[in-house]
Design goal:
- This is Uracil-DNA glycosylase.
- It is found in: Cytoplasm.
- InterPro entries: UDG_fam1, Ura-DNA_Glyclase_AS, Uracil-DNA_glycosylase-like, Uracil-DNA_glycosylase-like_sf.
- The protein is of the alpha/beta class.
- Helices cover about 35% and strands about 10% of the residues.
- The chain contains nine helices and six strands; from the N terminus they run H-H-H-E-H-E-H-H-E-E-H-E-H-E-H.
- Helix 1 packs antiparallel against helix 3.
- The longest helix is centred in the C-terminal third of the chain and has 15 residues.
Length: about 240
Amino acid sequence: MTGPITKALADFRKEKNASGWTKLPFFQDGSADRVAEKVDAVVAAGGHVLPPPEAVFTSITLTPLDRVKVVVLGQDPYPTPGDSHGLAFSYRGARRLPASLRTILAEMAADLDAPMPKSGDLTKWAKQGVLLINTALTVEAGKSGAHMKFGWSDLVDQAIAVISAHQPAVVFLLWGGPARKRAALVDQTKHLVIEAGHPSPLNRLNDFKGTRPFSRANAWLVEKGLEPIDWQLDA
């Protein structure tokens, strides 16, 4: 019997927006199928996997390869049911915004002299070409980081490399140690890398606030003749 993540993978491969991504070795050499099988084994054993299967590949479904203008890397989905919907940092829960997202949106508001958004749903960004991808696309409820070693990171590394190679001008917003290590995968003669500390309140250096990544990204995109991102979320 096909498990839910294997089925979600098959459905993703049929998506019209998926064609650029599915040419990655991750989807060609069996890696994606093996990762899906690992996650399905967790489900079969009674584990509660997040986000819902139909949302696992949301990041690369909403943002096709040929439309990527900005890349934001997260770690793994929120481990509370109902919070994550497949986009890094994005939140659809009913409680207060998660701390890291609140820090990100507060910086956006201060950077752009805009109101602090009430919504934490970043779908609007994704549809404009902001790839919001986590290093692991799945997690277990209540077990942050549980799937970080399942093999999802190969997808992220390959995605960054292919974006760097094939897109003309992309801004990479690399926040926190694991994300910043991936700067080595980016051709910085043609792309802009903006590094900063992680927006998490656990970051004792507090070296995210005041870095103004949103205005800097937009200024560079305009300089390259590209449409800037409308970062404001509320209508």
